[in-house]
Each structure stands twice: as structure tokens, then as C-alpha cells.
């Protein structure tokens, strides 16, 4: 049985999946002042509904890439396209959602109101947004914490509110930048399981940045290892692991093999 505050995925009200988008990055270049070339002609093609882990040395440009994909920054050269095109259609409010390492919750708002925020910002009525937030909070195992405030939550619970807030818009692309890095290993492992279960249920495309080789191998279908900057692709690998994953996978030879390959690529990327 899961300890208090860390429930397994609830079978309660499903939120409908909106499917994923294909993300195609072509010849992407980004140089920061001081002639810091972070990306230089990067190509990456992410299939709709896939779960891709991005690994690479610190400072190689992983967050920069996510920010560019999210439209939070502009590249000097290159192109990012989404198929189908990420336009807001009726009932689809924010096709891209971004989760950071810090949960960034508003301390004066309840869990429910934090999770409902993206819908409030786009003018969704209170009953409708609260119902949507409740459903997604159930999905992340926080159905009984809707009236609590961020200060009353553990770090893992705060991250789950952050995840719920990202999912409340039914995004077609979910970008996660080391979302569980600050958590203890047990909590992190449980959140990895929840995230993977949500992805399998909802089918959005996921780009997940992590420094953890075992987290990447456990979560993703495909891992892309980048070199130090300017980031180039050292390894682009579809992981030979089962779709159904549980903690015991981490002790299996197939998992150890994938982890070793990722580790070797990371070491190679440091030398490039
Ligand atoms: N706005 C900015 N202005 C100047 N330099 C920047 C800016 N944003 C990022 N950089 C630099 O670009 C490089 C890549 O940063 P980025 O955050 O993308 O790396 P990262 O791979 O995500 O690193 P980490 O794994 O340590 O989080 C770093 O050298 C960073 O200092």
C-alpha cells in the first residue's frame, strides 16, 4: 500500500487524452551574448505520442532547446514545426505545457485553484475549471488534497500539483525540465511511475530533460544524448525495454544494458 500522500494512480474520472504532436527541429541554432554557441544546426524529429528523454552534460543546451520548442525563446537560425499544427482550437487551451524543476505554485491559492490556474487565465468558467482541475488532481493522486495550500504539502505533492496544472489543459506536448530532480529517490521513483502511466493513458508527446541515466531509461521509449555545447546528437536510441514497466525492471539485465549505453554516450559527449 502506498504511504499517505503518495497514492497510486487513481482510477477516478478520466481526463481525455488529446493525442500527441510530431515535433521536428531542423538546423536549430542559438548563440547567447559572449559568443556562447549553445545550439548549432541541431536536428531532431520526435514522433507524435512518443516519450523522449534528453540527456547531456550540464550546460550543453537542453533547457535552451526546451525553451525554443515552447516558444519562450527564439533561434537565430533553423525551424521548429509541429504536426498537426499547434493552433488553439475550441476546447483546446494550451497545446504545450512546461514543467520545471521548481513547482512554482502560488502560495496563497489552494491546490485546486493552483491546478485550475491555466484555465482561469484563459477565461474558463469557475465550475468548468474546477471540475477539470479536480479530475486531473485525482489522476495524480491528490483528490483528497484539493483544499490544502502549498505550504502544507510535501515536495513530491507540490510537484504533482505542478504536473496536474500542466495536464489540466490536455496538452499535446508536455515539456519537462528535470521535474523531479530535487526530490528524494523514493518519491522520484513513484512520480516517474505516475508520469509514465499518465503518458500511456493520455498519449501526449513528452520531452523529458534529466541528468539521471536510470530515470531516462526507466521512463522513455527513446533517449537522445547530446554532446557538450554546441549540442550535437551523440546517441539517438529506441530503448529495448518493455512497455509495461515497474520497479523490478531496474534490476534486469536489459535495463542495465540500456543504462550502460546511455552512460557511454554521455562520456563520449563530454569529450566532443
Ligand atoms: N539567457 C541566457 N543568456 C546567456 N547565456 C545563457 C542563457 N541561457 C542559457 N545560457 C547559457 O547557455 C548554455 C546552455 O544552457 P542550458 O540551460 O540550456 O543548459 P542545460 O543543458 O539545460 O544545463 P543543465 O543541465 O546544467 O541544466 C549555458 O552555458 C548557459 O550558461
TrEMBL record:
Keywords for this protein: ATP-binding, Nucleotide-binding, Transport
SUPFAM superfamilies: P-loop containing nucleoside triphosphate hydrolases (SSF52540)
GO molecular function: ATP binding; ATP hydrolysis activity
UniProt signal peptide: none
Keyword set includes Zinc-finger: no
Pfam families hit by this protein: ABC_tran (PF00005)
Domain ABC transporter residues, every copy: 23-253
Record-given protein name: ABC transporter, ATP-binding protein
Organism: Myxococcus xanthus (strain DK1622)
Lineage, top ranks: Bacteria, Pseudomonadati, Myxococcota, Myxococcia, Myxococcales
Amino acid at each position: 500500500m502506498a504511504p499517505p500522500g503518495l497514492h497510486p494512480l487513481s482510477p477516478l474520472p478520466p481526463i481525455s487524452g488529446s493525442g500527441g504532436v510530431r515535433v521536428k527541429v531542423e538546423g536549430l541554432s542559438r548563440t547567447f551574448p559572449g559568443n556562447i554557441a549553445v545550439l548549432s544546426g541541431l536536428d531532431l524529429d520526435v514522433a507524435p505520442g512518443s516519450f523522449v528523454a534528453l540527456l547531456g552534460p550540464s550546460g550543453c543546451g537542453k533547457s535552451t532547446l526546451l525553451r525554443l520548442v515552447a516558444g519562450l525563446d527564439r533561434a537565430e537560425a533553423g525551424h521548429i514545426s509541429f504536426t498537426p499544427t499547434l493552433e488553439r482550437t475550441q476546447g483546446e487551451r494550451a497545446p504545450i505545457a512546461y514543467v520545471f524543476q521548481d513547482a512554482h505554485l502560488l502560495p496563497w491559492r489552494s491546490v485546486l485553484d493552483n491546478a485550475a490556474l491555466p484555465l482561469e487565465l484563459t477565461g474558463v468558467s469557475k465550475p468548468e475549471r474546477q471540475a477539470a482541475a479536480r479530475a486531473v488532481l485525482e489522476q495524480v493522486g491528490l483528490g483528497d488534497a484539493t483544499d490544502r495550500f502549498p505550504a502544507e504539502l510535501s515536495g513530491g505533492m507540490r510537484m504533482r500539483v505542478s504536473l496536474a496544472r500542466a495536464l489540466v489543459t490536455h496538452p499535446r506536448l508536455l515539456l519537462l525540465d528535470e521535474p523531479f530532480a530535487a526530490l528524494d529517490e523514493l518519491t522520484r521513483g513513484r512520480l516517474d511511475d505516475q508520469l509514465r502511466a499518465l503518458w500511456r493513458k493520455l498519449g501526449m508527446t513528452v520531452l523529458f530533460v534529466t541528468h539521471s541515466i536510470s530515470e531516462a531509461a526507466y521512463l522513455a521509449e527513446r533517449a537522445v544524448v547530446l554532446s557538450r555545447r554546441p549540442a550535437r546528437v551523440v546517441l539517438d536510441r529506441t530503448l529495448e525495454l518493455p512497455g509495461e514497466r515497474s520497479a523490478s525492471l531496474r534490476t534486469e539485465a536489459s535495463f542495465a544494458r540500456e543504462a550502460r549505453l546511455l552512460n557511454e554516450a554521455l562520456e563520449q559527449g563530454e569529450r566532443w
